[in-house]
Amino acid sequence: MDSTWDDICRLIQQADQLDADGRLRIFEFLAQTLSLIPLRDGFPTPAEIEAHGSSLTKAAKQYKAPVEKGWSQWCYEKRPFDRAHFSTDRAGIACGPASGVIVLDVDDSHLFLKWMQENHPSQALPRTLTIKTGGHGERFHYYFQYPSGDEQYSCRSVKGVFDIRGIGGQVLCPGSLHPETRKPYTIVDIVPIAAAPFWLLEMSKKPLNDKTNHRELNSQFDAIEIHSTSIVPTDEFLSTLNISNEIKQKILTYFPHGQRSEPSWSVLLGLLNANIDEQTIRTIYQSYPIGEKARKNPNWFERELQQAKQTIAQNPIGAVMPADTFIAPSPAPVESEYRIVNAFDVLTAQTSFEFLIDSFWPKDEPMLITGYGGAGKSVLTLQIAMDLVFPPVNGFLDKFKVIHGGHKVLFIQSENSLVGMKRRLELIRATYAIPDDFIRQKLFFLGRKNDIRTSGDINSNQFQDIIKGQHGLIGFDILVVDPLISFHNSDENSNDEMRRLLDNFSEFCESIKVTPLIIHHHGKFKQERGVGGGRGASAIGDWSPNTWELEYKEKDKKFKFIHKKARNFMLNDDIFLEMKGLRFTINSQKATGQNDSTYFVVKALQNLNGVANTQTLLKNEVVKVYKADNPAKSITAVTAVKYINDAVKKKAIKAIHGAKGSISYQL
Q1: In this predicted model, what pLDDT tens digit does every residue of 76-109 receive, in sequence order?
Q2: What predicted TM-score, i.e. pTM, was given to this entire model?
Q3: S-S: 75 plus which of 96, 294, 396, 546, CB 3.0-4.6 Å?
Q4: Is 206 helix (H, G, I), strand (E, B) or coil?
């Protein structure tokens, strides 16, 4: 197939507007990795609704059912895909090892959060691929990795709250149309599929020789008392060890790939500090989820164990007490968090430099936007947030490519009231049609009472706990603080105080894995404009790895966006902007001057939606643009090529060289 994942994602989001071939294209693409099964075509007829007691909901259920007998074999074995066998309206994903997924089907998000708080209060649902169903209300499918190995995981239910779909279960796949509402199953969080939470696997675990029908298992489970006061799952062996509940929880948790080293290190320190012998530690790492990385990489584990032993020997922490009276030790001295890392380990670390927005905002790096009051910083920040959750075709400002969408943004702001923000969003949506679902599920404001304005100190544990609690509920990964002055009690002119404040805030953001964007004002006067970091202490600008300044010249009605600092990538040239419908775009005429040849090239590319796949295409458009702006004059194709080459040299556009000498261009 020629389709890419990005192509299919776009089709999925508008599946109800596609023809039959378009939806089959989605199913065929997904069937490359998932075990898809045929479901019934069409929608309930009036006669069928009447036959079910005039209930559309009951009549619609039969349209979600597989059409093949013995379909559950495709939970174990991937079903070959044949377009002729599949409905043009919907398809099912057979959950289990064949698809490699186990799906949490949440019927009621509010009841589910309540259930989690009662049963697993210390855990948040891992961020993973999330699908919004086409049914009524806020219902979601959370996809998790089906574990490898001999253990089997089947279906379970907590009636009216959620279902777990494992072996013997299926869910409608993205792009399918709900038989009752005729709305599509759409993607709301495009991220890699995460490892399944331990509690979910324990709940759905099925004995190897158990051939009981999964519906019977559901009935048996529904009769079980689901409320528990225990934070840590019961484990007879671990209960005999003199370790804290936190360490037990980490031992029993499956952490996603790339996030296993830190909890493993914490567990090693906890076990050694509790005087657990080395043989028992090795047994734990061979037998429990915490040892997943260690089992795959024994050499890495040996190094970690020796370093942990050395750390404990140098920095003894905690106290040993009888198991039945154990109290979690006080936090370790700061020194216990440190260890030596050699340069080769840094060079070969399993991490990479990524952008959220290409050449504009690196992932996991704080960004600082500065400017005078009224320059438009908050409007620009809202545009950044909206483009992250629903990327425009031509990128942010029609210049910077948004690497991938699927983000969730939380605004902590003090200047824009509920009615003011409502008006802003109304004006923006008149020119940028971001869907309701994206605004509802991906853009959030931390408010108080009946407003979306708030205040607090980002350096206080109390306010950080409030932010952390919201992170556990909605799983945002971008945090906007607007403006900085409203959210701290430090002396803004003190380098010492501001650096400690911002370093502490960075550590907090790293701990919950969010990337912060901070808005900071200039002062009223020229001398109150810090070097690269707004007003106040120079430490603010020193702290920020990526700083942009927004200027507005009232006399000329011009906006200028200046890249003041980039610690880990190249600085951008100054960008001239204009605002229409509360959306910023590049003002190429003001940026280059209408007599500058670059102006005609940039405008030609904008006419081509930001991309020209060949030089001929761009050259011809440049000739047209020049003629339109200068009716009495014209340029030759040779001159147009010269204009293009000059624009590339000035870095106004990018030239991309392909195979066999081909060349394309983009803003």
Answers
A1: 999 999 999 999 999 999 999 999 999 999 988 8
A2: 0.45
A3: 96
A4: strand
d(CA 144, CA 257): 13
* C-alpha span between 372 and 552 (Å, rounded): 8
**189: confidence class by pLDDT, cuts 50, 70, 90:** confident
Contacts of 97 (CB under 8 A, 6+ apart): 75, 76, 146, 148, 167
According to the model, what pLDDT value does residue 413 have?
93
In contact, 56 and 49? CB cutoff 8 Å: yes
Model confidence pLDDT, tens digit, residues 376-386:
999 999 999 99
Tokens coding 365: 């790096």
* 576 phi and psi angles, rounded to 5 deg: -95, 130
Please state the φ and ψ torsions of residue 414, each to the nearest 5 degrees.
Answer: -125, 0
State which amino acid sits at residue 57: T
Whole-angstrom distance, CA of residue 390 vs CA of residue 583? 14
Neighbouring CB atoms inside 10 A of 67's CB total: 14
Q: Do residues 618 and 608 lie in contact, with contact meaning Cβ atoms separated by under 8 Å?
A: yes
235: pLDDT confidence band, cut at 50, 70 and 90? low
- The answer to whether 618 touches 601, Cβ cutoff 8 Å, is yes
What is the pLDDT of the chain when averaged over all its residues?
82
Six token digits for residue 349: 């670390």
For the chain, state the CA radius of gyration.
Answer: 28
Question: Phi then psi for 587, rounded to 5 degrees?
Answer: -95, 90
Q: What are the angstrom distances between the C-alpha of 463 and each of 468, 469, 487? A: 9, 10, 10
What is the spatial distance between Cα 459 and Cα 457, in angstroms, rounded to a whole number? 5
* Sheet strands (E) in 59-107: 91-94, 101-106
| Strand (E) or helix (H) holding 543 | helix 538-543
